[in-house]
């Protein structure tokens, strides 16, 4: 009987690539897809989905999902894709335990990781806080043979198996270049981010400031943490405008764009240029009002789909990740293509 492993060896590709081609899951380069399909036909390969599902159910695969998603609409699309695949993989016996958090409480995230471990998870998909205690918890999971995927944010110092998400430094650099193009005059810029405990948020800030060093007339008005909460973002921007009447631009690194835009609207400051992330409905609403000029899209559906696919491949098919990081491209969206 011909196996996926044999086809992979003959084609010079990974087992994961062969599995995705034969099962129609995930993107594969056309030339590789053609090679795999031709080899499978030549060897008269016939999959046995019923037998595969039965074998998978005997493994009792259990996945824990822990995201900082409460009150953050970006994760709506991430979770939609994850739930869709989780339902599809239910026939293979895959069970998913869903957990979510609001804010950036280290004690709470540690406790929820422990709770998931007590429920016998074989894999963990986590949006982690960047803190030594979280790194320790992730490492404990890996040492206990739990497969760990970091999603949307990373902790590079941990033993996690792979990361799925955006290139944060590039996102910051892209936002800076975009701001300079839209607002070529002197810039007096304030920055909002969810938490400095998030590696990605700090990396975006660093990328932004690094690029802005080349601007001949850039003035940094400071950075404020919002806990990814629109009400806090609203108050922070109102205070920004009081403390810095010269402020003429805002960069919102994570969630909170709607609150920030409402503060700008309430202050009647039509001269302020805003660059944000994610094309959620409230951002599009503020684009239509002319308050937000551009957003950077980070492919939430693909993030959720890729993370769940990697875990399924590992737990059910025994396929290791093909790389350490699965990076989603940062795409610039303006009003005219925001809903595309």
TrEMBL record:
Pfam hit, one: Peripla_BP_4
Name of the featured protein: D-ribose-binding periplasmic protein
GO molecular function ontology, one term from the record: DNA-binding transcription factor activity
Keyword NADP listed: no
Location of the HTH lacI-type domain: 2-56
UniProt entry keywords in alphabetical sequence: DNA-binding, Transcription, Transcription regulation
InterPro entries, A to Z: HTH_LacI, Lambda_DNA-bd_dom_sf, Peripla_BP_I, SBP_2_dom
UniProt KW Transcription regulation keyword: yes
Matches recorded under PANTHER family: LACI-RELATED TRANSCRIPTIONAL REPRESSOR, TRANSCRIPTIONAL REGULATORY PROTEIN
Organism placement in taxonomy: Bacteria, Bacillati, Bacillota, Negativicutes, Selenomonadales
């Amino acid at each position: 009987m011909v196996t996926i492993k044999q086809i992979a060896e003959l084609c010079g590709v990974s087992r994961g690539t062969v599995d995705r081609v034969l099962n129609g899951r995930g993107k594969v380069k056309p030339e590789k897809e053609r090679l795999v399909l031709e080899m499978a036909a030549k060897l008269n390969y016939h999959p046995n989905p019923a037998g595969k599902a039965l074998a998978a159910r005997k493994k009792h695969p259990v996945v824990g999902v822990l995201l900082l998603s409460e009150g953050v609409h970006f994760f709506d699309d991430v979770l939609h894709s994850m739930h869709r695949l989780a339902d599809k993989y239910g026939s293979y016996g895959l069970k998913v335990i869903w957990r979510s958090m609001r804010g950036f409480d280290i004690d709470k995230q540690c406790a929820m990781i422990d709770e998931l471990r007590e429920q016998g998870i074989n894999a963990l998909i986590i949006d982690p806080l960047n803190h030594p205690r979280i790194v320790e918890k992730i490492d404990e999971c890996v040492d206990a043979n739990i497969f760990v995927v970091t999603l949307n944010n990373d902790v590079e110092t941990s033993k996690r198996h792979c990361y799925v998400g955006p290139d944060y430094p590039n996102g910051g650099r892209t936002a800076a270049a975009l701001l300079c193009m839209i607002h070529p005059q002197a810039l007096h810029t304030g920055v909002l981010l969810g938490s400095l405990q998030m590696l990605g948020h700090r990396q975006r800030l660093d990328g932004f400031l690094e690029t802005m060093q080349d601007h001949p007339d850039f003035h940094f008005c400071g950075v404020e943490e919002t806990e990814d909460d629109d009400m806090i973002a609203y108050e922070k921007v109102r205070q920004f405008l009081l403390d810095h009447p010269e402020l003429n631009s805002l960069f919102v690194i994570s969630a909170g764009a709607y609150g920030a835009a409402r503060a700008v609207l309430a202050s009647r400051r039509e001269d302020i240029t805003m660059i944000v992330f994610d094309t959620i409905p409230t951002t599009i609403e503020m684009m239509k009002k002319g308050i937000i000029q551009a957003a950077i899209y980070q492919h939430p559906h693909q993030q959720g789909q890729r993370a769940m696919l990697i875990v399924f491949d590992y737990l059910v098919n025994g396929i290791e990740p093909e790389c350490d990081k699965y990076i989603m491209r940062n795409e610039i969206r303006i009003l005219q293509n925001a809903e595309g």
